[in-house]
């Protein structure tokens, strides 16, 4: 039999598609719009198996929407600032742009070869001045609203990359880019005030419940980390020369206030140094030096021995006037809550471990019925009866305990109910070159002066190679010609801000820019955004579950408050694909289990690789390439392709008179695929197409024969269905069926409802071999269902009255024989 020449097909159709350019969004209102968004890539190297997977899955959705007649926006771009290009540039002694734009070309070519249905006319790169002009513009608008500000604080510092990192970029105490251990440094840095939006970021997840993976929502919820409790004011007693002062703590358990037996301040909080008594100073400083070297992970570990230093001061418990000692310790974090806690060892295990280590008193104030923590050194956290708690004594539940104590504190002006978030402001300054310059000028007279809008973009200077080596300050600081400017306000000598922005700033709004990529009046044309956004479907990796998605949601909310967009959530639905692994493990150089995408495509062709990715299983699951059979996929594509050569009726032949059984199979498949694509069960789509190919083959060889119009209908449907997954093969089939390209826009066949009606079959029900009833049932009824139906039939129940059923013989769908006696 003829074989399908995969390579020739790829060459042929690639050219035709380039000419036809079929996937440009019309954006003319003639059809309903759908926005299919895929997370844009970093241009580091060529595409790999992971890209191949996510793109194959994403394209099923976009291509399906095209077939359904929507006007689809399916854009592509590059997140092209960032460290990999900069590090490569240092190694190669060139400008980061050289490496970046070369990789972009390579990846773009690979996407085209892979047959992605992108709208190439909207392509963008975040490192283009035309793009980052607007990143800078947005930064200035955020700053005007008080949402971008500078402050000095201890920040995460990667000694290897010589740059600060956001909390989100520190994973397990390590830099998430290079794996080096992260340390702390005191630096003045720019922040976005994302904490102002904490509650809204949390609340608006309600509306995403049905369309975002629960695990992503859970990760965001946890990252935002909302806790309800109270702020309680403690007086620190004056001591010698040292004045007294009020220190507030955040607690989730104000009801345990009578059990507070000591007070702990984070050793690295300013407060600790300020209140430390002179005689404890030396011990405190030594301890602080040790704490500064620790990571937050160490500090929060419950396994570690508790450490700390007495500060020589006493705090006064606001409810009973009790004097309790003030300690500095590392298990309290400086940047959470207020950086100080009231320690209730009986009901908080961390406090109890600390009390044990330093022999501090433990007092139970809630009797939970468990053993007394004063004796067991196991803290109890549950509800119980309040004891040793004055007016609370006798209450039996947390809610009333908390309500009563908070009411009293509020009445006395010594505290109030409070909500605390784990979420921190987003640190956006980076001391690296290859990023978006921060459009601020520092003037000794005027202070921070924004670069006027009409002078944007602030373009990066031409630095390369050794100029870019990390030195702890941004390489831009050393570029004198660039950094020294006249103050836009007073005209005096001033300096540009020499930091660049975290690349997550660039990616927090790119999906808006796609709607009008050439717009010059602003970051995006509000009308274009109104037409396309929010994106109907976002597809990408779960590694972006927190950072990118949270930041994009934050940006969208700010833009909403600025009146620039009229929605508050950017992505209506989210799909996270699994990973491509090999032999059960993530692919890596060190394991030597990497699979090269180019090799796979050379060996099996694009379509077989795409089909394998889609057929591998539910899109959310990992794909173990070792278990996959791209050669099996290729064989299937050959079989499908062969059908198109066997059809002998003319294109345009009406299907009406065709073989009804085959027509039914075709129409059922189409209807089922509609539901399957909508519910993202793409692997089952492939299975259904395989079934239809088999049925059609049988019809040709031993059924209605190749001339029957139903065969043409079935094969055309196969081509259209395959166009979602295997675009080259589908195009090849479509042309062999006598049609013009492109099959990608052939349009979804209209499903004939009449052909979906299930035929019914008559089943006979016998009792003791005697015909008692006839039932109309579906041809696919299961034995169990048929038996249940028979036994439920009133005539049969009457016939069985007073008898015991001994045996039921079922031959679905035709016969049930009941033996009773
Ligand atoms: C007294 C108390 C009694 C507490 C008790 C808990 C149980 P979440 O839920 O994570 O918000 N805390 C407050 N600030 C802290 C900081 N900077 N570093 C470490 N721990 C801190 O936890 C809030 C609880 O964590 C607070 O409530 C406080 O301990 C502690 F039976 O106050 B609690
Ligand atoms: Zn000035």
From TrEMBL:
Residues 221-406 form the Leucyl-tRNA synthetase editing domain. A motif ('KMSKS' region) lies at residues 586-590. Its main location: cytoplasm. ATP binds at residue 589. InterPro entries: aa-tRNA-synth_I_CS, aa-tRNA-synth_Ia, Leu-tRNA-ligase, Leu_tRNA-synth_edit, M/V/L/I-tRNA-synth_anticd-bd, Methionyl/Leucyl_tRNA_Synth, Rossmann-like_a/b/a_fold, tRNAsynth_Ia_anticodon-bd. One of its GO terms (molecular function) is leucine-tRNA ligase activity. The keyword Metal-binding does not apply. Keywords: Aminoacyl-tRNA synthetase, ATP-binding, Cytoplasm, Ligase, Nucleotide-binding, Protein biosynthesis. This is Leucine--tRNA ligase. It comes from Nocardioides jiangsuensis. The gene is leuS.
